[in-house]
Amino acid sequence: IKILIDESINKGKKYFVFPYEQVSNQLWGVGVPEIMMDSQDVLNAAFRRLLDDVAMTGNQLEINVDRLDDRSVNNANKIKPWKIWYRSGGDEAYNAITVHKVPSIGNDLIKIIELVRNFIDDETNLPSLISGQPQQQGQPGAETASGMSMLLGAAQVVIKSVVKNIDDFLIKPLIQSYYHFNMEWSMDDEIKGDMRIHALGSTILVAKEVQTRSMTEFLGITANEFDMPLVRRPGILRKIAKNMGLDEDD
Predict the structure, then answer these.
(1) 58-63 and 97-102 strand pairing
(2) Name one Pfam family in it (predicted).
């Protein structure tokens, strides 16, 4: 371990970490795995129990060997389709083979798994809709294009907050450190001056989304025979495509 006095005029931190979610007692904050840890344990336990349930449920055979012929007794532990069981007689009221069905609780376990998945979506603010999972039955919003757009916009709020954390805790202080280094050590006086660093990643994301929504609504309002000749729709469509990350020339 080596300790040196920092001779730089920039007395700030030299290492930068951005948290997924900021907390007061640690530099690195908490991430998705830690946020959903308890629910993930419940989900794992429920899924393991579901596999055990599938393995244990089904038909169980009770064989009364006193009612079976010797030919069937010798291979009673071998089960196959269309197997012939030889009975040696006795009271017909007593079956030689009785089938017992072990009930399954799989449906109840699946309900628990789905419930915990919903908990995870709420805890992490990362709904399955973001990854392309279909809407759950009975959940409104995805029936129309505008409704789906609103759902996707609401689902991406947390992503924008993460991008803002990257701006505030990583990009901005890192560029500030480069700025102070050049102000102190660069031999090029032309680059020196009073400047303030602004990281606009999350701001641009929001601005593009608002602009795209406004232009889409404008196209819908003017989609009539009276207004369409007055609107340059190709230019607006190119801007929408550009904001959506698409090739505006295709």
Answers:
(1) antiparallel
(2) SU10_portal
How far is the C-alpha of 208 from the C-alpha of 206, rounded, in Å?
5
CA–CA distance from 209 to each of 15, 38, 153, 206, 243 (Å)? 33, 34, 8, 5, 8
CA distance 20 to 29: 7
Q: What is the structure's pLDDT at 194?
A: 87
pLDDT of residue 27 exceeding 70: yes
The pTM for the full model equals 0.61
DSSP single-letter state for residue 59: E
For 242, the token pair is 């550009």
**DSSP helix/strand/coil, 193:** coil
Helix (H, G, I), strand (E, B) or coil at 129: helix
Residue type, 126: L
What residues does each domain of the chain span?
32-140, 158-243
Q: How many CB atoms neighbour CB 156 within 10 A?
A: 19
Q: What are phi and psi of 110, to 5 degrees?
A: -65, -40
Q: How far apart are CA 5 and CA 181, in angstroms?
A: 16
